[in-house]
């Protein structure tokens, strides 16, 4: 028989103990605040996570002329850059990115590539597996000159994928500097070099589809956080870029269709009268796409191959980059999308090899992405959004993205292909928001664009394509990764270049998305999360946020202390593994004990302790264990004159089922508790306990629950929303664990 002692006894003892203990150094644990980890707030970035009153960022405007040689694949360019120094510092040199040098001879990526030789290795994969050059292709930029506005040569130094340009005079705060670069490089076959741009050759008709990415020397970011972001481009971690305005003239064969960042400035020079009429019609078509170039027209151009040239001019305002695609094979469809008070045009370019899948789904997916992302962040501000079809790819740039998922030659396609197309188009179009507008540093923090974007991709599919929704980017979907060997993992807060390839996808994309899903659905609730996430998006639109800005804004805008969450999910490799270690079932013994006289008055029908002799700790078969409750002794009241009605307390608990559960934190990651109670009458109840239950003891907690009905089954994390990696210890009675594990395997 057990006696339930009043909580006040414990409180008195703990308080007395604390008063007699010597002062100790502050204990550090999983609920410690992140103040010592995050950078100190200042006038540039506030403690609330917002841009400060003295926030600044640089700007770079470009005027570029480029020509594509369809026979030699040579890209020749001339650019003029006007760099605006808005920083409080005086600059004596500038840094630019030369991303194409990743394919130059003796590049750092190939030199540091590790791998082994395997028997029967496919020839086409030997280069990717070992880094050994197996092609005659000569890559990298040929820099013809770097000159100032007066035509005087400027000293420059190339360091692999970075170029330093020395200024003729210090560039002071508020000043701007204009200089020019002439350059060229040979575009590569992306089937051989798995890079972000490149061309695909179609031997059946002898034509190319070109996607030009990282194709011109671009300014590095200079900011308040680290000065110049001139970390080498090694291929995995992406880009840190500066906002500016672009005017770009692109010369291609006259029968090519070009899609690019920005809007066409000279449609009469490059489009037929009929194409212009169709384009104008598409601007008002909200229900379905309008074909500007049909499949029959594109197929006809594949056969003729014009020898003339045409120059397409595009203008883009306040963008961080510029990309374009060009081919005579392109089919072109477009439709209008209503977003707030704006009407951007969603457009798809694709060869016939993409049909019928692309004409059915691509532009529709653009529309869905723009609408859902705009609801969750800010209204899409740009005038256009392109989806370009290429093989085996997904890559993003302002207003344009390159996407794979191609049907079979006979036009058939599987459900998997459909899901692949929808997901990749939504994801890459979504990148317009992160990082093209909320302009995080991809070179350092992959998760700030890929993780946030994967989360919103998942949400878009959930809302607009419920029949295609999966566990991708959810707590349930991340379990296999989280269950892996922790010694081989790195935290999310790790540079992407320092992660293994399989770890990069999880840490950069799906684990952050799963964390945000858990944060929205379980920790904060959708209303608070959505408001805070929208606040972050609006605060940092067209600016350069850092991780601390996201962490602080989410707390500032919600009133929820999330330091424990960021610390566990983003700074460690801990996983969620909570064991339902022990369950005890009690019922109040219907008797009154006088603590002064120590006599027991028992009423008829009392439970007896003898029933629980040899109690089974693995199930409820031994029935409840009775306990008695003392009247509150006078000494516990202290100076209070009134008295508690002990009889009322006993009456409220009379006939109730009281369950005491011990939870053990096996995985190390503190987490909310989601408990499913199944009652004897077949009904169920979900109960949610905040993660703060672990704040006193991070390893083990015991909690008491009072239930009206008798419980027959207890399951922790019944819907897999906590990413708990071990189901076998999540249930009671323990004999049901095997079926729980089988359920998980069947659903994954």
TrEMBL record:
What InterPro entries would the database entry show? Answer: Peptidase_M1_dom, Peptidase_M4/M1_CTD_sf
User: What Enzyme Commission number(s) does the record list for this chain?
Assistant: 3.4.11.-
The keyword NADP is assigned to this record: no
Q: Where is the signal peptide?
A: 1-20
* Annotated keywords: Aminopeptidase, Hydrolase, Protease, Signal
Peptidase M1 membrane alanine aminopeptidase domain mapped to chain residues:
375-569
Please give the name of this protein. Answer: M1 family metallopeptidase
Q: Which organism is it from?
A: Ohtaekwangia kribbensis
| Lineage, top ranks | Bacteria, Pseudomonadati, Bacteroidota, Cytophagia, Cytophagales
